[in-house]
Amino acid sequence: MVKEPVRILVVGGGYVGMYTALRLQRKLKPELTRGEAEIVVVTPDPYMTYQPFLPEAAAGSISPRHVVVPLRRVLHRCRIVIGEVVSVDHAKRTASFTTLATEDEGTGAVDITYDEIVMAPGSVARTLPIPGLAEHGIGFKTVEEAIGLRNHVIEQMDIASSTRDPEIRDAALTFVFVGGGYAGVEALGELEDMARYASRYYHNVKAEDMKWILVEATGRILPEVGAEMGKYTVSQLRRRNIDVRLETRLDACEDRVAVLSDGARFPTRTVVWTAGVKPHPVLAATDLPLNERGRLDCTAELTVAGVTHAWGAGDAAAVPDVTAKEPGKECAPNAQHAVRQARTLGDNIAASLREQPLKKYTHKYVGSVASLGLHKGVAHVYGRKLKGYPAWFMHRVYHLSRVPTVNRKSRVLSEWILSGLFKREIVSLGSLEHPRAEFELAAGGRSPKESS
């Protein structure tokens, strides 16, 4: 009787999913070669997005293709399934998922059995029931959103340049960003820098005509770089005429008017929402234990607490921080932890299959870096605080060292070199979002842009 291979199901192809599968295909190379093990990765996208590069992709410093890593190329020993897991019955070791062909087939979700499961679906944007947010808000978590936002900003400058209505012009040149974490501050800094540069090519739009507003509900921004660097960041943004509003919330954004909790009202066509994330909804459709915040209840060995053959890490998992002085503290849901957890996770799964002892995930905090635009940044690394160009340079060096594959490192580095030698590209390719618009017009129909 032929023994079935041990199937390891990886749910998600983000940081944890990709790096865990990558580690496993190295650690289990003999078992994979002999057909004793199988790694299946179910992910909605055929690529992993390196999110720290999204702000630079939005600003045009990096090509969108180079901030994503094709999974089929990197995980050549794994079976990649482009689909989305909708439920997990761990008691029966079964997961259900849909694929791109599910709707056409009409057969519903497909079931897959497994021996070990890695829950790494990541997180989704944490939104609030704010009037108008669902209709008008723009996220900043995927490469599609980053490029869409870049096109949108340049399109607003084109609208302002062509209109004779001062109200339309004012709304087009007002950009509201909600959330003072990494995503919000870096996206705002890079896009403001790009728009300031682009304004020199408009005869009737100047940099000082634009209003950039950062709204943060707490009393500080970029808490990861420390209080001092956070205050420095606020001062630098304000020196660039960016309106930073701390301890302020977005109350509404209906009818293209952003209403803030301090009573301010800004006519705007752009509201970018970067106010935090929450665990992926698929976790609620499993029989695995969750904590009060909806994250997987995990141990320091990255197993799911109370069950066997289930593992978790990254944004979706509550992993104890064994290096913290205070008891009960969890690892922050960021990329720095996710990449390191994936290595330990891959090692532990391999050790478990070989009946070897597991290791606890430990991580000594190195520091944080953030870009505020071209040649501008802040950093708090190994206890040292850096500002301006040195911090920006460290930001690039650090993330270049972390982006996967030599192929991607080389492409990103070459783009940085070329962008230093030549001028910025400031072309909006918004028509990419409606690729059939021109053909539909030619065929006598209404284009999607007209109907929207």
Give the arrangement of secondary structure elements.
Blueprint: E1 6-11, H1 15-27, H2 29-34, E2 37-43, E3 47-49, H3 54-59, E4 68-70, H4 71-74, E5 79-89, E6 94-99, H5 102-105, E7 110-113, E8 116-119, E9 123-125, H6 133-136, E10 137-138, H7 143-162, H8 166-172, E11 174-178, H9 182-198, E12 211-215, H10 227-239, E13 242-245, E14 250-252, E15 257-260, E16 265-267, E17 270-273, E18 277-279, E19 296-297, E20 310-312, E21 317-318, H11 335-353, E22 367-373, E23 376-381, E24 384-387, H12 388-402, H13 406-421, H14 437-442, H15 448-451
Parallel strand pairs: 1-2, 1-8, 2-5, 8-20, 10-17, 11-12, 11-17, 12-13, 19-21
Antiparallel strand pairs: 3-4, 5-6, 6-7, 9-18, 14-15, 15-16, 22-23, 23-24
Helix pairs in contact: 1-11, 7-8
EC number: 1.6.5.-
GO molecular function, one term: oxidoreductase activity
Family: Belongs to the NADH dehydrogenase family.
Description:
Residues 7-342 form the FAD/NAD(P)-binding domain. This is NAD(P)/FAD-dependent oxidoreductase. The chain is α/β, with parallel strands linked by helices and 452 residues long. The chain has helices at 15-27, 29-34, 54-59, 71-74, 102-105, 133-136, 143-162, 166-172, 182-198, 227-239, 335-353, 388-402, 406-421, 437-442, 448-451, and strands at residues 6-11, 37-43, 47-49, 68-70, 79-89, 94-99, 110-113, 116-119, 123-125, 137-138, 174-178, 211-215, 242-245, 250-252, 257-260, 265-267, 270-273, 277-279, 296-297, 310-312, 317-318, 367-373, 376-381, 384-387. It folds into four domains: 6-125 and 278-353, 3-Layer(bba) Sandwich (FAD/NAD(P)-binding domain), CATH 3.50.50.60; 127-275, FAD/NAD(P)-binding domain (3-Layer(bba) Sandwich); 367-421, no CATH class; 425-452, no CATH class. Helix content is 34%, strand content 23%. The strands form seven sheets. It has a seven-stranded mixed sheet with strand order 7-6-5-2-1-8-20. A five-stranded parallel sheet has the order 10-17-11-12-13. Strand 11 (174-178), helix 9 and strand 12 form a beta-alpha-beta unit. Helix 1 (15-27) runs parallel beside helix 11 and helix 7 packs antiparallel against helix 8. It is globular, with a radius of gyration of 23 Å. The model has no long low-confidence stretch (mean pLDDT 91).
